[in-house]
Amino acid sequence: MSSPVRLGPRSLAALLLVSAVGVVAIGWPLFAPPSSRIASHAQDAPWLFAGLLVLLVAVLAATISESGLGPKAVAMLGVLAATGAALRPVGAGTAGIEPMFFLMVLSGRVLGPGFGFTLGSLTLFTSALLTGGVGPWLPFQMLAMGWFTMGAGLLPGPERLRGRAELAPLAVYGFLAAFAYGMVVDLAGWPLLSGNASNIAFDPDAGPAANLARFLAYSLATAMGWNLGRALCTVVLTLALGPALLRALRRATRRAAFETAVTFDGPGA
After folding, report:
1. Average pLDDT of 85-104?
2. How far is CA 256 from CA 8, 72, 77, 117, in A?
3. Whole-angstrom Cα distance, residue 169 to residue 138?
4. What string of DSSP letters covers 177-234?
5. Rounded CA gap, 42 and 133, in Å?
6. What is the pLDDT of residues 211-258, one digit of tens each?
7. The pTM is what?
């Protein structure tokens, strides 16, 4: 039976570091005091992007070194990232039809939180290169997708639950996390709106509570349709294709020696 790759101390430390950086970079409008002078994301994004790539390499290296994974496991990570990137343009996000998300849920479940975070971030990066979606928003999308995939790896019962008992929490998680992903990405771009544009734009002179209310109104008015469509699409595909894909992923992880280190016999064996 295949089990997710567990987090070691170095993997956990790297994940906590990159998540802390992400929370500050994305959530500063809700924590910054009124009248604070903070540069826009458009200016910060290149530095965040460079730092994020370094931290992603650190997460991947720590996970590999602590779990004894071989090159086949890294190759599988690349295949899944390429598959997710290819799925992203399907539907082009119309009405939230984004099949990539269900693959991230199931992959995170099988691979675990460390590999899941790296897979989610790498998939967004690869898809941006394929679709020309590189811009100041990319590092924030990479962080959000990394958290999305990592969360699936943190769900309880990876070694005990199978069948419908496993699909139900995965579908519920996919529904809620799809909304959370949309809100995180919205929050990253929301401060760029002009304060004079409407009463739901970011106001640097308002306090955190007032800006939180403005942001919730902004998200409800501009993104609810896409978030709901994404959530429903993730649930439907998870329930419909989940059993077969979970079996395939777990079989592939066993063949990639995720659990047992490769050993070589001596010449006289």
Report:
1. 80
2. 20, 5, 10, 19
3. 29
4. HHHHHHHHHHHHHGGGS-TTT-TTS--TTS-HHHHHHHHHHHHHHHHHHHHHHHHHHH
5. 15
6. 889 999 999 888 888 899 999 999 999 999 999 999 998 888 777 655
7. 0.82
pLDDT at 69: 61
C-alpha 172 chain-centroid distance:
16
Pick the closest to residue 95 from 251, 234, 238, 230 (CA basis): 230
**Distance of alpha carbon 186 from alpha carbon 191, whole angstroms:** 9
What one-character DSSP code corresponds to residue 135?
A: S
Quick: pLDDT tens for 53-75.
777 777 777 777 776 666 777 78
Q: Is the pLDDT of residue 7 over 60?
A: yes
d(CA 266, CA 12): 36
With CA atoms as reference, report the closest residue to 107 among 158, 63, 41. 158
For residue 64, CA distances in Å to 148, 201, 240 come to 21, 43, 32
> Two tokens at 227?
């978030």
- Count, residues in the chain: 269
In SS3 terms, 48-81 reads as HHHHHHHHHHHHHHHHHHHHCCCHHHHHHHHHHH
pLDDT in tens, 79-91: 999 999 988 877 6
- CB neighbourhood size of 264 (10 A): 6
Number of alpha carbons in the 13 Å side-chain half-sphere of residue 45: 17
Question: Whole-angstrom Cα distance, residue 149 to residue 120?
Answer: 6
